[in-house]
Design a protein that fits this description.
It contains 14 helices and two strands; from the N terminus they run H-H-H-H-H-H-H-E-E-H-H-H-H-H-H-H. It has 382 residues and is mostly helical. It has one domain. It has a two-stranded antiparallel ribbon with strand order 1-2. Helix 3 (79-93) packs antiparallel against helix 4 (99-125) and helix 5 crosses helix 6 (181-202).
């Protein structure tokens, strides 16, 4: 919105020509991040106070760690503030003609609505059940599947990369791995749904999930910018000058227009940092499913749209481990009647081993940061 006003209208005035700087995604990445931070910081205290007055308190599972019982009543559904800062900042600074942004926003907000319904039922009924798991998954598959089916069956995507898979550490332009359109849509939907629920499982300690979310958003910001930006570089091959865009130079898929997603990523990272101000241990507010499901869905969409479906396993490795710990625990108990971990997800295992909550959180953040750096390393190691 502001992009179209500042660059499309006001920059045409001779004395305001300097506003043409907003044509560049890099400028709007900074603007979106600052906007999201300001929204989070300015509205945070008022928002938390409103939640307290409405008695929107967290319900704690009795079978969970006993130390968590003291957290009962802490305001939840704080993810609504993250969503507000994310959506407003993105709409203000992105190119509103870009389908990648609108579809990513649609999935993010749609998953947020599912999470909101789940949180509302928990708060209103004063229990931890919320929406039935099968119903949540049904809505997640429906929302994600509809968005991805529209995207990959329309002319938005370059047909040469639409259903091809990019593998980490390999040259995309020499890879011939491609899926049938409908099979790819199913696969991509699974990636988005899995990412959403993985973040949801990780959200069990104060600030544990939002830290890796910020790191994931920052990593995909780089991927989106490099894959979509039209900047060209010149290099000499056999004595002749050749022009290449950054994606071709790095041997990653070039997807026209996907650089606008970097603005979405910047807004997500900044909104997450702003929320962490209030969510850090001891938390003044929890994000709830409205936050974890929506942010996870947004991360999944960024992985799919930048053709980093498998790189997500690296940058989102912490979410993968949390999910696998639950699957291993459930499978082991069903097959052997024995538990592998003291409690799953795995962060509760370390909690019951006596690790202080802040130590678990910070160490998991450090692991996530390391994985993000490894993921960025795949840009050169191929």
């Amino acid at each position: 919105m502001l992009f179209h006003l500042l660059y499309g209208v006001l920059s045409q005035v001779e004395s305001l020509g300097f506003l043409r700087v907003f044509r560049y995604p890099s400028t709007r990445i900074l603007a979106a991040a600052i906007t999201a931070l300001l929204i989070s910081f300015l509205l945070g205290p008022w928002f938390i106070d409103r939640l307290k007055r409405a008695q929107v308190g967290q319900q704690i599972r009795e079978e969970g760690p006993q130390a968590h019982l003291k957290k009962a009543g802490t305001p939840t559904m704080g993810g609504s503030l993250i969503l507000l800062a994310l959506v407003v900042s993105t709409i203000l600074w992105c190119d509103l003609r870009n389908r990648f942004v609108w579809l990513t926003l649609a999935v993010t907000v749609g998953y947020g609505a599912v999470g909101f319904a789940d949180d509302y039922l928990k708060v209103s009924k004063k229990n931890t059940k919320g929406l039935p798991g099968k119903l949540k998954l049904l809505w997640e598959f429906a929302i994600g599947g509809a968005a991805l089916a529209y995207l990959f069956l329309s002319d938005t995507y370059d047909p040469s990369v639409r259903t091809r898979l990019a593998m980490p550490f390999t040259d995309f332009y020499q890879s011939q791995i491609s899926l049938a359109p409908w099979f790819y849509i199913i696969f991509a939907t699974l990636v988005v749904v899995a990412a959403s629920n993985a973040v949801n499982l990780t959200d069990g300690l104060d600030g544990l999930a939002i830290g890796p979310v910020v790191i994931n958003a920052g990593t995909f910001l780089v991927f989106a910018y490099l894959a979509g930006v039209e900047t060209v570089i010149i290099r000499k091959i056999a004595g002749e000058a050749t022009t290449l865009n950054l994606a071709e130079y790095l041997r990653i898929p070039h997807i026209g227009g996907v650089s606008e997603l970097a603005i979405f990523c910047a807004a997500m990272a900044a909104a997450g940092i702003g929320f962490l101000w209030y969510n850090t241990y001891p938390a003044s507010v929890f994000m709830g499913d409205v936050g974890s499901l929506s942010l996870g869905g947004g991360i999944g969409m960024m992985a799919v749209l930048t053709k980093n479906e498998f790189t997500l396993l690296i940058v989102g490795g912490l979410f993968v481990v949390e999910t696998l710990s639950v699957m291993i625990q459930v499978g082991s108990y069903k097959l052997r009647k024995k538990r592998v971990f003291r409690m799953a997800p795995i962060h509760h295992h370390y909690e019951l081993k006596g690790w202080p909550e802040p130590k678990i959180i910070v160490r998991f953040w450090i692991i996530s940061l390391l994985l993000g750096l490894i993921a960025l390393g795949t840009l050169k190691l191929r």
